[in-house]
Amino acid sequence: MPLVSARVHAVANQKGGVGKTATAINLAAGLAALSRRVLLVDLDAQMNATSTLGDRHLTPSIAEVLIDGLPLEMASWPTGRADLVLVPGSTRMAGYAPGALAALQAALHSVRRAYAHVILDCPPSLEGVTPGALAACDEVIVPVQCEYLALEGLTRLLAALDALSEARASAVQVRYLLTMFDRRNNLSREVAAEVRAHFGHRVATAVIHRSVRVAEAPGFRRTIFEHDPQGSAAAGYRAFAEEVAGHGT
Fold first, then answer.
1. Most buried residue, 95, 104, 107, 204, by most Cβ within 10 Å?
2. How confident is the model at residue 179 (pLDDT cuts 50, 70, 90)?
3. The domain over range 7-246 is classified in CATH as 3.40.50.300
4. Is the pTM of this model over 0.85?
């Protein structure tokens, strides 16, 4: 039987406040709950994924890997959750300028066979480490907030992906996830319909409903499954994890 190599997912959107880190955390936790071994790499200098799943003072971190050349496995930390491992973020990443687009890909190479999925939580920017994450991944997951001008903010991200596709051996796949959906709000329904009309089958079937519990959970250092397991947001992320787990298996 051939060895399995992890599927790498970059969670990216240069627009803040769309549920990017919440998606990275809860997708990782949802996949781990399906007995998929998962590595979550916190690339964001804000370190919110690290604060939720580990400790902001954990070191070595991703900075020691990408800046100092430490092997990635030496910066991988248990989260206390079965099948979920964290590479913590660092404030040093705020000034990170990769010497080569393939630096992150090279760092991931040694650990890909140890995991089923690697989740890259990108910063809300198309600068710094984000181009490397987009180059290293098999799939880009784009959270799209169900609010006014949701599509307008994606223009630069799509342009960056088009530019990267020319340098890759294969085109990067893109999956869109509707977040902060409010079924009582006409605008949410209109935005969701517009996104589905524009991107078709690339939009996940699962939808993440607006919930104050998603915003609360990091303050308690919990995933949504730990904080509000019966809520609508947990159901949405559980369904999304099942979609992702089923892709390419």
1. 104
2. very high
3. yes
4. yes
